[in-house]
Write a structure and sequence with these properties.
Largest sheet: 8 strands, parallel, barrel
Structural class: alpha/beta
Helix content: 10-25%
Shape: elongated
CATH superfamily of one domain: Immunoglobulins
CATH class of one domain: Mainly Beta
Number of strands: 31
CATH architecture of one domain: Sandwich
CATH topology of one domain: Immunoglobulin-like
Radius of gyration: 27 Å
Strand content: 15-25%
Strand order of the largest sheet: 12-13-14-15-18-19-20-21
Length: 697
Amino acid sequence: MSLPDQLEVGSPYPLGATFDGMGVNFSVYSANAERIELCLYDARGRKEIGRFDLPERTDEVWHGYLPDALPGVVYGYRAHGPYEPNEGHRFNPNKLLIDPYAKRLVGDLRWTDGLFGYRVRSPKADLSFDRRDSAAAMPKGVVVHDRFDWSNDHRPNTPWSDTIIYEAHVRGLSKLFEEVAPQERGTFAALASGPVIDHLKRLGVTAIELLPIHAYVQDRFLLEKGLTNYWGYNTLSFFAPERSYFAGETLDELRVAVRRLHAAGIEVILDVVYNHTAEGSERGPTLSWRGLDNANYYRLSQEDRRYCENFTGTGNTLNLSKARVIQMVADSLRYWVTSFGIDGFRFDLGTVLGRTHPDFNPGAAFFDVLRQDPVLQQVKLISEPWDVGPDGYQLGHHPPGFAEWNDRYRDAARRYWRGDENMRGELAARLAGSGDIFDRRARRPWASVNFVTSHDGFTLADLTRFEHRHNEANCENNQDGHAENLSRNWGVEGETDDPAIEEMRARIQRSLLVTLLAAHGTPMLLGGDEFGRSQQGNNNAYCQDNEISWFDWSQARSPAGTRQIEFIRRLIALRKRYALLRSTRYLYGEEVSNGVPDIDWWDERGMPLEHHDWDNRHGRALVMRLARKLDNGRLRIIALLMNSSEEALIFNLPPPSARRRLLIDSAHPELEEHEIGDSYYLFSHAAALIRWEVPSP
């Protein structure tokens, strides 16, 4: 390609670098820049081969057109403008900038003080100005052409009420999976492999939720400790997939994985980070948004615009009150849906996205944009409903259309099964779908994403193995991560050869799983919990790209692992078989037939709980009775029996009397379904599901 003397005017839309068959249009937003240069590089991004001013500016969007250019062009930007940190402006044309809309990156970020817009060691700190060129240490954007045949792809479109989520990390899921080809382990190609998909299908999950796959930065402070950013919550590009997750050189590797998962009936949900970027605080590097228009892309202190507002704990906060920033996020989400077939998103620190000067607002523009967008309103939207800002805990306050991670379910289940007092009422509310939190504005039980464990915290095995965090490998003096995990080690901290302790731990894990899969709402499983994955007591493994975090698939083949997998498979099958376990509406004890309500609560004596029973601090036995009238006129009842006491109990089952059938028992995972009488002997720390039917007058 021969380069012209200057760019043609081009178009302000679409933003980014777009190939139209005859050339490439470049378009980038900056309200405060005075001049923007497009820099072109060789294929490896090492040598600059051309530099052009973007010749036109329309509605604060700079743009230009490079005729005869093809996909594969490597590029970056330099932005000229005022360097006035006290006014929020940090333009420095010596710093090469990544296009916020770049869909592929080439080259790695190489940490050097030259990446910073100021002289790092200057007494003036970030008020100083650094004139070193950063290009050699910077990744560059690559022009792509997103053509892929989706014509025979059939999205599962699983109803929310039928959804069962499996949370996993692309790399950790398959890095040690011997059945996957060695060159594909830890990559998107492994997601498309038969062994991984067969495992997910065997479990019966309907969606896989992937930790961040947007291109991200390896934090300097971690590299200096010999650690890495494993989780990926430090975004460098909202459009480009992380390069290290590819086995090959084509973006289609991810598309193939999504398409094959769809063919298996499995949706793909992405954990996305739009609350902050990898540029950190005002003392952070200048990599993209900061150099293009710091005053608009980031929320700055109202008292002193030199400083970033930090509602995320990472140094900066994206300014979702600005129309162009909202557009960037919406365009990114839409791109992942249309170009990669993604079925939904989980928003990290989602409360940030709804903050408006500075309080949380469920009517914030960002939420409105997503709810009315013809593409995005059709995908699954999940929020992590908290951040570190003022009034940052907003569980239940997101608008209709969103589901939310329900940490109150997590804490109630953990407290109840470790034996805490006075947990009946709280657990009952969570099992019933948390209507006290979510039943407003026509929201449904699925809005509560119920989970016992997630990537952040102990695994299920460690929840029953450790009472204290063991994060020494993180090199932070074991001060990072949650100090209180609502866990119990059942006699020994860590591993043990005591069979009684091991049996108790396994039973507690199964009991937690029973209550998770029997609760109304959307259940989420942490990947690896199905066969006892441990992180050796590390409850904050964000920087452990090693055996601490990777799935040890040999455990899945062990007797204990295979037993756990089979137990979860049966639980999920029961949830799918019986609609009573996944109600599409909130139940409040309304009569179904002949005095039997849709939901009510009993104790082990077969007595309905009265007001004073809920106040009994020592009551640890609880029965949830669910009832539904079938199309054939019969009344179907399912009872969830729970015993978190230290002794086995005989449960007198609630009426009406009939031939009853045990579905599953966490104390006896090997038991098949069979008929039982009007009472049931339930071990301590165990849960069971029982079904029966009666004629309905």
